[in-house]
């Protein structure tokens, strides 16, 4: 049985995640060498060494969730404490949190920084997937099957918006929307939810209008419209991102040869790491990242479609949508397709909270994939039909036809 379970793991998915993470580590070292010395006054390999520790921790977390049976998370003994803990942590950060990047989104303990909202993404995926899986028999009863799970979503988004971190709140809403659309409820209820969401968002925007419409956030839209007109102010990040990507061309300038990382491109090892990849490795480096991320997203969707368990299918789709949405927002921001929001590129950007959260999600996805493959290959293997049995019997010399 153990051999069958091991054979059921999707090692191609594990390999792609490992390669992308290792590639990210190499690029973090390249992108952060000068920043570490000039901006932070530390050794050139400071962020590289810290990311190695993040990867070790993330690997252990990944292995745990890859072998932990995901169906156990359907239990209220796990779901209820997870929900209350996530709400408690998001509330506590508003009091004890550390401000960074204009948002009070971090717990800082010595050299260690933790961003709880990253982990809440996974808890929300687990919760919505579990609840809507349990409500399949009455999924289209709006007041009973559709609305109750969304109270958790509303509270989470409100607490994150108070930090304020509207980028993460928007990502969570989009992830939840993907799970809801995939849950099996009819289009009428999905439309009603959309209207309800718009109605609820109006008072939140009015309450937080000073933060929503702050100069920093309005400046991002100004930079999005025409970054070169505000090149020395709000458009500085985007203009230097353009210069990095444009100078890389097809072949790139070579690993470690980026010019924009020499103090011109802020956050070169986090939000703008893809710009450095484009400058140093050209279209080949960019293509590798896009293909790897695309493979993970599509693989997750296929796992969801192949699965017969609603909970596992919704988990797979929720996790793959999270990675796809974050990737689009990061890449869209640095290329000027959408306004900048400060979202890291999955598996590639520097950051412990992001990497560990992604490792939890990927561990769950790999575990779901293992169960799907195991059930399809072994548990649900159909016995030979009568026709096949007869054919086999006819090959027996002691079998006589009547």
Compact overview of the structure:
The chain is mainly α and 402 residues long.
The counted number of beta strands is: 3
The quaternary structure here is single chain
Number of helices: 16
N-to-C terminal Cα separation, in Å?
42 Å
Question: Using only CA atoms, what is the Rg?
Answer: 24 Å
Task: Explain what you see.
The chain has a three-stranded antiparallel β-sheet with strand order 1-2-3, with helices on one face. The chain has helices spanning 2-8, 11-38, 46-67, 76-96, 116-134, 142-146, 150-161, 166-182, 187-207, 209-212, 215-225, 236-248, 273-306, 310-334, 352-379, 386-394; strands at 98-100, 103-109, 112-114. Helices cover 69% and strands 3% of the residues. It has one domain (2-394). The longest helix is centred in the last third of the chain and has 34 residues, at 273-306. The relative contact order is 0.15. It is mainly alpha-helical and 402 residues long. Strand 1 (98-100) and strand 2 form a beta hairpin. It is globular and about 55 Å long. The protein has 16 helices and three strands.
């Amino acid at each position: 049985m153990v051999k069958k379970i091991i054979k059921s793991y999707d090692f191609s998915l594990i390999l792609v995640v490992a390669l992308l993470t290792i590639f990210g580590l190499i690029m973090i070292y390249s992108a952060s060498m000068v920043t570490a010395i000039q901006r932070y006054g530390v050794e050139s390999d400071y962020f590289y060494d810290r990311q190695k520790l993040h990867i070790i921790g993330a690997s252990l977390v990944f292995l745990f969730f890859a072998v932990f049976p995901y169906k156990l998370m359907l239990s209220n003994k796990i779901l209820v404490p997870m929900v209350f803990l996530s709400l408690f942590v998001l509330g506590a950060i508003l009091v004890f949190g550390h401000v960074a990047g204009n948002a009070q989104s971090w717990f800082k303990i010595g050299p260690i920084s933790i961003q709880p909202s990253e982990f809440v993404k996974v808890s929300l995926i687990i919760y919505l997937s579990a609840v809507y899986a349990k409500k399949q028999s009455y999924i289209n009863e709006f007041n009973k099957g559709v609305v109750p799970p969304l109270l958790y979503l509303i509270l989470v988004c409100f607490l994150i918006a108070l930090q304020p971190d509207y980028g993460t709140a928007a990502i969570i809403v989009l992830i939840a929307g993907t799970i809801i659309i995939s849950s099996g409820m009819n289009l009428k209820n999905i439309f009603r939810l959309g209207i309800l969401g718009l109605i609820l968002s109006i008072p939140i925007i009015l309450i937080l209008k000073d933060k929503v419409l702050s100069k920093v956030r309005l400046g991002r839209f100004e930079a999005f419209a025409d970054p070169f007109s505000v090149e020395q102010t709000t458009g500085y990040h985007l203009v230097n991102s353009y210069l990095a990507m444009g100078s890389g061309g097809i072949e790139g300038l070579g690993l470690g040869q980026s010019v924009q990382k020499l103090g011109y491109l802020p956050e070169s090892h986090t939000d703008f790491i893809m710009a450095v990849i484009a400058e140093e490795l050209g279209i080949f480096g960019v293509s590798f990242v896009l293909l790897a991320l695309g493979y993970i997203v599509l693989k997750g969707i296929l796992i969801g479609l192949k699965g017969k368990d609603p909970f596992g299918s919704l988990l797979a789709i929720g996790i793959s949508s999270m990675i796809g949405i974050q990737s689009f927002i990061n890449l869209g921001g640095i290329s000027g397709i959408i306004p900048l929001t400060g979202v890291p590129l999955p598996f590639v950007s520097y950051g412990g909270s992001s990497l560990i959260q992604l490792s939890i999600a990927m561990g769950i996805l790999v575990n779901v994939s293992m169960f799907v493959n195991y059930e399809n290959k072994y548990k649900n293997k159909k016995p030979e039909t009568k026709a096949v049995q007869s054919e086999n019997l006819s090959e027996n010399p002691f079998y006589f036809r009547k």
